[in-house]
Automatic annotation (TrEMBL):
CDD domains: YXKO-related
Protein name: Bifunctional NAD(P)H-hydrate repair enzyme
Lineage, uppermost ranks: Bacteria, Pseudomonadati, Bacteroidota, Flavobacteriia, Flavobacteriales
One Gene Ontology molecular-function label: NAD(P)HX epimerase activity
Family from the record: Belongs to the NnrE/AIBP family.
Residue ranges occupied by any YjeF C-terminal domain in the UniProt entry: 228-500
EC number: 4.2.1.136, 5.1.99.6
Chain residues that bind AMP: K412, G413, A414, H415, S416, G440
Pfam family, one: YjeF_N
Organism (species): Christiangramia gaetbulicola
Function summary: Catalyzes the dehydration of the S-form of NAD(P)HX at the expense of ADP, which is converted to AMP. Together with NAD(P)HX epimerase, which catalyzes the epimerization of the S- and R-forms, the enzyme allows the repair of both epimers of NAD(P)HX, a damaged form of NAD(P)H that is a result of enzymatic or heat-dependent hydration. Bifunctional enzyme that catalyzes the epimerization of the S- and R-forms of NAD(P)HX and the dehydration of the S-form of NAD(P)HX at the expense of ADP, which is converted to AMP. This allows the repair of both epimers of NAD(P)HX, a damaged form of NAD(P)H that is a result of enzymatic or heat-dependent hydration.
Keywords: ATP-binding, Isomerase, Kinase, Lyase, Metal-binding, Multifunctional enzyme, NAD, NADP, Nucleotide-binding, Potassium, Transferase
Cofactor comment: Binds 1 potassium ion per subunit.
Amino acid sequence: MKILTAEQLSEADKRTIERQNITSEELMERAATLVFNEIHNRLNGAPIPIKVFCGIGNNGGDGLVIARHLIQHGYHVTIYVVNYSDKRSDDFLANYEKLKSITNDWPQLIKGEDNFPEINTGDFVIDAMFGIGLNRPIEGWVAKLVGLINDSKAFTLAIDMPSGLFSDKVPGNDAAVIEADFTLSFQAPKLVFFLPETMDYVGDLQILDIGLDREFLAEIKAPIHLIEKVEAASLYKPRKTNSHKGDYGHVLIVGGSYGKIGSVLLTATAALKTGSGLCSLYIPECGYNIVQTGLPEAMVLTDKDSEQLTTYPEDFEADVVCFGMGAGTSQKTVGALEDLLNSVKEPVVIDADGLNILSNNKKLLDLLPKDSVLTPHPGELKRLIGEWQDDFDKLEKAKDFSKKYDVVLVIKGAHSFTIKGDEIYVNNSGNPGMATAGSGDVLSGVITSLLGQSYEPLSAAILGVYLHGRSGDFAASELGYESVLAGDIAQNIGKAVKDLFQSEMKDSERN
Ligand SMILES: NC(=O)C1=CN([C@@H]2O[C@H](COP(=O)(O)OP(=O)(O)OC[C@H]3O[C@@H](n4cnc5c(N)ncnc54)[C@H](OP(=O)(O)O)[C@@H]3O)[C@@H](O)[C@H]2O)[C@H](O)CC1
Ligand SMILES: [K+]
């Protein structure tokens, strides 16, 4: 799914009105009615106090439409017009008139702190103050109102965007932004919903298809994509009936050191669980018995050093090589990576200490084969590309790095970002249970395995990240977040692959 900017969405809005020959008021009615349906499906008539805070633009207009439907369905609704400006949008005014015709409880005008209502923990707050039209920080008494809503701890549903959140920049320190529990957003996700610095304002997210012009949406050039099941499934290559292990790649996992042999074991397990035909490991001698016992399906070669890697077996023929997990950063191991990069011509996967070695020895970056995949967490990324000012700056620097060294970057996080040149792919699978030791080692194994199975490096990274997250979802649903171990993620990769082609059942379809 394309992630769009506020400008692109406003343009899509205009084109839809032209091409579908409808008024903007009709489009607002359509969009806001979908929101009402979602609320009604969940509240099911519950008599809880609903407080709708409307701005004076079209986000506020949406709020008025939602409120009208709620009132007509018997809900207990109080509407507030947050008068941050004396202007009114046309569609706001039209819906204000419609509201007056169905209720005698007219909206209450908030012009300053004196008009603030009481907001209780048990209230249901609908935030329709600002949407994609926000163009400067919220200030003064309106900022105080945002604080009051946040402090109330009432369940807060944001319409389109949490008010105060820009679609294209990070709010400043101490900025007033609604901390929503749930955001129902129109047509396309916005990048800020997924960035570490801004995602917490959004709460749970649902995108509503409000029927904007399909042709225009298909034509829009958007370099940022959200990766969900459909996108991941489109990358998947089915196995052929008439095939053998030689068709699915031979991966070589290079890593480990004394006390950190478990890491390579996890990576190798994940590679085999993702379907590699053959898996070999190159590790220090101390790991030999551990790996042979822990993973009998794998083959093991050992370095002459018993505790760390010092060389690379350059005559070894593998389809893809992965380097770094548990390897340490000793000078001898730097030499091992240098040997590897001097002998391998196909894209490699570099993770963990492999990345730290690259950061400490920047000249090695020039030896990386084109389209190699680097999988840093934010700390490793900082060492690679330097400090950034905010998440937008981080993405710019990451794109520059990807272009400079011709590599695919996977920035790991709650939503991992895969970057190649100017293209960004935001992953939407996974859960907090995956924040656990060894989770990254498993991811490297999945990506390496896909590369060995002839996936293009970018596709291997995007699909690998998605499958890793989905495996974590299966592990968490069985075990609970706290009990997910990295090994559990590896064990569930098969389920994640099968799930690519299982359609979601809607609640209404369940018996
Ligand atoms: N295509 C769609 O997705 C649809 C979206 N809809 C809804 O429309 C809003 C966007 O509505 P818009 O009227 O453009 O903007 P807002 O309602 O977000 O903001 C209203 C005006 O507020 C002013 N503004 C901006 N920032 C501030 C601030 N910090 N303090 C005070 N005032 C501010 C600004 O006007 P100015 O002239 O003062 O600059 C805004 O214009 C979208 O989010 C959806 O909810 C449609 O309903 C359906 C289609
Ligand atoms: K809002």
